[in-house]
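Per-record layout

source: Panagrellus redivivus
name: Tyrosine-protein kinase
length: 507
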Amino acid sequence: MTKDKETSNKSRESARSRSSSKNRSTVASPSSTTNTLMQAPSEALPPHESFENERWWHGMLPREDIVGLLEKPGQFLVRLTEPTKGKGMKLVLSVRIPTKHHHFVIYKDTNNMYCIEKYKFATVSELINFYVSTKKCITKKSGAVLISPVPRQDWEIRHSQIELGKELGRGAFGSVCIGTFTQNNGTVKNVAVKVNQGKALNKEIIQMICKEARTMRRYRHKNIVNFYGVAVEQEPILLVMELVNDGALDSYLKKNFDSLSIGDLALMCADAANGIEYLHSKLCIHRDVAARNCLVSDARVKISDFGLTRDVSDKVKQYKIKNLKQKLPIRWLAPETLITATYTYKSDVFSFGILLWEVFTGCVSEPYPGLTAAEVNAKVKQGYRMDPPSTMPLTIADIMSEHCFPGAPEDRWEMTQIRKTLEEIANQSSFDRKKTKDKELANDFTRIMDVDPAKAREADLKAEREEREVKKEKKSDKDEEKEEEKEKDSEKRKVEKESEKRKKEKA
């Protein structure tokens, strides 16, 4: 014990002589393009010690993530607990023993020495190295021994790998910025970075961010935004994703709607349907399908924002809200969600119907224009549905009204059926002036007719509707003729039966 104390005292003196400014990892501020630097929170970490290069350091990664990393007995890591109301962060050593996980708080005494039970050290690194080298039990009661650290995963990004640029927008999470991400192999990528700026970091926020990261890292699909990683070593927490060039679908449509063909719009909807179909195949309900949560690159769409997603099982394919006071996107919710607080794949289908409405109106207003959220809530429960917009082809209007909006979830289509139908419409569309082989001819036609492309498209849509109405009328006439024939046949059979009956009576 005397030898341990002497070693500890010497280490403490050398540790205090280090410069804290050189060891702090930094990150550019999202609110500036001049790379203002921010410090990690000093109250939670040792003031003279940096963990950035330690294999066992995992920052503010929550229990839900670290439990999956500690697979073998003796594996360990060090992390910061999520702050709870009235309490700050604490350093915790998490260890796997044969039957479970143990989580030990690393305390600092009045002499600024670090300990878990009886052994005290000048630095946290010395404490960890002591238990690894001596194989002493962390505590007698636990019997936990440190054998090997769990290194950072590929998706655990250092703040020093991220440089933030201009802000793209703000949301409930904080801000979204353009940034660069220097990968471990030295490759630099342009990325989009969600930054939890402006809100005090607490347990709920950390868990929400890390849950979204946990969800995103499981998925790889052309219509799902790619996930690169999450930086949780210090504040602010950063969620690093693929940069999709043209931004959110709602903003994109507001700017470009008049230049997009029906084929373009149908293809965007098919892309979104493909992404949602993929999530459903992975037993995931998105719960927030909306134009604002889709991103656009070269007129192709990817699903993003996984903050509300929930995993379900093959047996229980639904999720029920526990906290009824949380803010919900009322205008996109299915009636059963509004009534019973229950989500299923089919509630995503209903929300997709709202997305179709958004796309074909160019997102000029929120769904259910003229109604308050409370009025929407009441009316949708009573069976009210929005009419398809005038700019929507009848084939897509049919998907929206007949296959997304039925009150009974079982009467709605699966996303696979919707995706296939939309792809057929997009591929076969005769409205795509933008991609016609002879663009000059199309432009000449527009000039000769003295109409702008939007009016020409509207005229095409009107002609299509009239043609379909004629077909419906013809079909209706044929149906009426068939009914008349059936009635005549029925009358004829009745007369024949009566005649037969009379003959038998005479006989």
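summary: The chain has four domains: 2-26+44-149, 159-242, 249-428, 439-490. The longest helix spans residues 453-506.
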